[in-house]
Amino acid sequence: xxxxxxxxxxxxxxxxxxxxxxxxxxxxxxxxxxxxxxxxxxxxxxxxxxxxxxxxxxxxxxxxxxxxxxxxxxxxxxxxxxxxxxxxxxxxxxxxxxxxxxxxxxxxxxxxxxxxxxxxxxxxxxxxxxxxxxxxxxxxxxxxxxxxxxxxxxxxxxxx
Length: 160
Fold this sequence. Notes:
Blueprint: H1 2-14, E1 26-28, H2 34-37, E2 49-52, H3 57-66, E3 91-100, E4 103-112, H4 118-121, E5 139-145, E6 150-156
């Protein structure tokens, strides 16, 4: 009986995670990381941060379903005027729940897929904010409003 119990526990531990924040090219970060994610050194982020919240699986599913619409946005920054997100499959994305004023929003912190060192940082990006200065279009952020299902505030990192 002990062998059977050990085999079952071992098999369960090998199963892929069941939550949406653990699969695909995105991760839902714990709300405690919100302030850190918003401290980007070479792109603007929404402000002022007045609180945090933890989006539900339904919020993230709706964001993901609507995500192609972020490609319709154009950056309004001085460094990258009119820049756009061209191909979403080229980016990993971190999502974090932020409260700006009294609005519950989800901030998207995105970075190019090839920039993750598979041997060193394989899953660290799923738990910790990825912060990079400069890098241009390899790094971008945007805001998603789960109430209206709209994206806004697209911003790319500055150039080195």
